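Agenda item 2: nicotinamide-adenine-dinucleotide complex prediction
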Amino acid sequence: MRTYVITGSASGIGLATAESLRAGGATVIGVDRRDAEVEADLSTPSGRDKAVADAVAAASGSIDAVIACAGVAAPRAVTASVNYFGMTQFLEGIRPVLARSPHPRAVLVSSVSVVHPYHPDLVEALLRDDEAEALAVAGAYEADDPTKSLIYQSSKRAIGLWLRREAATTAWAGAGIPLNGVAPGLVLTPMTAPLLASEEGRAKMNASVPTPLNHHQTVQTIADLLIWLASEQNTHLCGQMLFCDGGAELVLRGVDAYSFADATVATVFANAGAGQ
Ligand code: NAD
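Presented output:
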């Protein structure tokens, strides 16, 4: 039986994932601020160090998969730390232990917000792994009402870019560890409950996350996907962000997700023609 470490295991998507895995007989080490095997605060470097050390100890040094789910949505600077460093440093901290598993897997939870508007300077500071600078930049936005909600979106975009940057490297793919992500749409959890409580809130959320397929999601829609990505069956997905969002990303980004390759394709055709 496999051993899983799940951050954010006390609520919402992380809790549903932990419960499903346990029901299937797996060992789950939950990591959360409360109600978890490992209680730690992923918003600080020392909290993250403690989370890694305690999770490895609780698993007796044998971990097959890590699911980084913990996150917060408040329009505050600390959101950048939890949603970005709470995932990157936790995953990196566990990685050496994970690599010893015969079938190691790592998954993180971003959001459909990865395609929403964002603060480029905050994303850039996060990707430079400069937490002090990221907190300073996010702190300035926190004090600036009209754009503070973009702190969350920036953190989710940064973690999405980190996933793409890291997954094919020797540290992950080279060590035989598929590293992938899930981008949920509007999932009914304690995080979204206050946002969906009023007519006005629902209208705002539905406008920013248009969902043509099956409307708002249950936690199980994401838990099932996380469990598959963390399973032995997932052998070849590498650095993929799976948008499980009822079509929101498709509506927002549009049909053409492939034009980035147009110049390359043109070159290939030109070269092929030149060779004939
Ligand atoms: P939730 O609030 O129900 O659960 C989040 C969990 O993370 C909680 O148990 C909380 O205690 C934990 N957590 C928060 N800060 C922490 C910290 N500093 N240290 C340790 N643990 C901490 O939220 P959810 O809706 O289940 O969200 C889970 C993930 O899914 C988040 O990363 C969120 O951004 C993402 N997501 C959610 C939705 C949605 O619609 N609910 C959509 C897209 C992405």
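Discussion summary: The chain has one domain: 3-274.
Owner for follow-up: CH.
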